[in-house]
Amino acid sequence: MSMSENLDAAKLKVRDLRLSFGDKEVLKGISMDIPEKEIVALIGPSGCGKSTLLRAINRMHDLVPIARVSGEIFLDGKNIYDKELDVVDIRRRIGMVFQKPNPFPKSIAENVAYGLKIAGGTSGKNLQDVIKTSLEGAALWDEVKDSLDKSGLALSGGQQQRLCIARAIAVKPEIILMDEPTSALDPISANKVEKLMLELKKDYTIIVVTHNMQQAQRVADRTAFMYLGEVIEYRPTRELFESPIHDLTKNYISGDFG
Amino acid sequence: MNRNRTDRLFSYLFLGAGMLSVLILLGIFLMLLINGIRTFAEINPLEFLFGSTWNPSAYEKASYGIGSMLVSTLMVTLGAMIIAVPLGIGSAAYLSEIAPARVREILKPILEMLAGIPSVVIGFLGIVLLGPAIASTFGLNNGLNALNGSILLAVMALPTIVSVAEDAIRAVPNSFKEASYALGANRWITLTRVTLPASFSGIIAAMVLGMGRAIGETMTVLMVTGNNLSMPNSYFDSIRTLTATIAIELGEVAYGTTHYFSLFAVGAVLFTISLLVNIVAEWVASKFRY
Amino acid sequence: MRKAKQWIGINLMLVFTLIVAAFLGIVVYDLLYKGSSVISFEFVFDFPRNGNTEGGIWPATVGTALVTLITALFSIPLGVGAAVYLNEYAKENWMTQLIRASIRNLAGVPSIIYGLFGVAIFVNGLGFGASVLAAGMTLGLLTLPYIITTSEEALKTVPDSYREGALALGATKWQAIRTNVLPNAVPGILTGAILGLSRAAGETAPILFTGALYYLRYLPQSVFDPFMVLPYHLYILSTQHHAMEEVRPLAYGTALVLISLILLLNISAFILRYRFRKAQMR
Description:
heterotrimer; A: alpha/beta; Rossmann fold; 6-stranded mixed sheet; 10 strands; globular; B: MetI-like fold; 2 domains; two-stranded antiparallel sheet; 12 helices; 2 strands
């Protein structure tokens, strides 16, 4: 499939990415370009490999002993699977928000400061500033500014997810990966997170996995439809939903399977 | 980059801690082998294993036969199993299948505490309580004999048997039991015809592990079996086990003598038995898993 | 008929269970009944006198505490380290299986064999002599498999999302373990460690030849000194003493102090575990 626009300046370029767990090939040669400061949605039926692709982008599969990866992912022209590159550094440049909110059993402030503290940098006044701006950036500051010492686990589900977003942006990543960030939330909280994503797009490149096709249409600039480990169709969101080229895409977005 | 160096350092430290167990086991094995093997510079191995006289400090000719101790060890172990197996499996089945959650929450810690009672304390009560009771019941001079040891070893093996057997019984899938109930079986029939047979290998493993505890126990048997070296004829005889022999003699033996090395050889026999017991237990337990 | 069988069967099981539980009851009751009259301030805090026929058990209590301390210092770091390796680093391969098999087999090695090993390695081999250090380390080896197993259980209860969350923020593996995994496993690790140490504190066979003495009029001055301990003291008083019948009350007192110490440790571990589990439910 060809892209309609020029993507030379892509922030992230995936080239022939293949990934298998043991004998099972889960990604079968993915190539796609992600432009800077856009939101790209990955959709497709369960087991199509969209979450696997997302986790490949910040090398979370390094933790799985049986995972085998080949191909390349270029971040600003540098292959993140290059042996020379430090995986810890890559993960700081590519943040991640998980499906289920996973605040650490620490205070709200400590949660936000976590990434900075382990990097061994900021402290004192500066740290307070980062906590504030990050929580503001995640649209959570007004709700928690008087209870920064409270445990992150004491927040509601939607607040927890926004705390996790604050935690991710506190380390100033370039890309934020979101793995079904609203699927565990109630509609009102989900709506807040969606609004937040559109806000974050001004500063960050976002890749989001979602099961919710309305969500993809509401937030994503581009959408990729994946099926059985391959990208079937990847186009600007409106084009993909209004005039899908491939029959599989057509069937999926009309709800015929999934 | 400094963080990564720390990271690597710790991964090696943890690997080292992990490997330590292998080294310790190997170390124990080699230590027993190197010391024990020197016994056989002077003693025929067959005579050592099957000879029934152990008299290292004999005036004329010292003899090193562990036969009577082997028999003694097997005797108290068997006695302990006869007592502990029905009690242990009955309790395990009760705790996992019948007991209400509240009762279980009280009984399980009690069992763990029973496991925590020091063997000297058990041995002490064997001397002051059980010994006199056995003596008066059976009209003996004293109650320090194989029967006393068997009963106390049963008490010590019970926590192991109950907890391993309980895990095994609990691991039987509910679908098995539901199928039985659906056919109109009551709880007792389901337990005896379905659940217990299905957890058979786990129960055997529990018995074998309990047996391992009994074979290796030292202080209790040392204190309550009278430590008589002659070949036992009945459970009312005073006996002396392999473990007790090491405990009694290592303290007074001269370093580097055949007698000294022979105690390591006794240790090697014990070690081999305990390894075999573990291997059998694992093999049985792995035969049947859900 | 079937009903009657079931009734008999189930009640028989109940009786068996009660018999097992009664063993603990008998131990505790008899020791309390006959031992409590011996317990006094003097008994606990005085030195033994006159060849253990009079006086107290102070050096044995202190010795038990010291040896257990060495055991803790030796076995907890190594045990937790091994558990971290197995739960956080180890891949499923032959080496991991070898390590796991070794741990299971170590748990089944008779305690007297640890005593032999202690004599050969710590007392003679490393030249520690019969001492607090040699005995503590011998008991440390004995406790190690238990601490590894219980620590690994505790680490398993820490949700993976804590690890992933930390790594996704750029933590190294060690940083994730230190900040997010270990702190959340501490109560579980501590429960296991306390139970393991309480068993070590009651052990006798491994220390028969690694440093326990039966009569001391002073406390050990360094880790290279021999010592008295409660379990060995009880063994001596009840089987090796020249006036066994006369010192029986002292033996009861010693047994009571020993078992109180151990049950106290056990109960505190259970309370810790109960709270830990409740906290995790939330």
